[in-house]
Specification:
Blueprint: H1 14-36, H2 40-66
Organism: Cupriavidus necator (Alcaligenes eutrophus)
Protein name: DUF1484 family protein
Length: about 70
């Protein structure tokens, strides 16, 4: 952890990369959601990917706020 009041240095292009990854995950989520109507396994994958995407988006938002 960093001390209170200190700032992280976010490398150039990091936010753009995270946004591209998030967009890719959104596309995957859409495809898996369609398949999850027929398969419990796909529903489980959808749930896991949705949690990963939410965490990624939350982290990206925190990094944007620090810039």
């Amino acid at each position: 952890m960093t001390p209170a009041g200190s700032r992280h240095i976010v490398p150039a292009g990091t936010i753009d990369s995270l946004e591209q990854i998030s967009a890719g995950l959104s596309a995957l989520l859409l495809l898996v959601e369609i398949q999850s109507e027929r398969s419990e396994g796909c529903h489980n994958v959808y749930s896991l990917l949705a949690m990963v995407k939410a965490q990624l988006d939350q982290t990206a938002a925190k990094l944007c706020a620090e810039e």
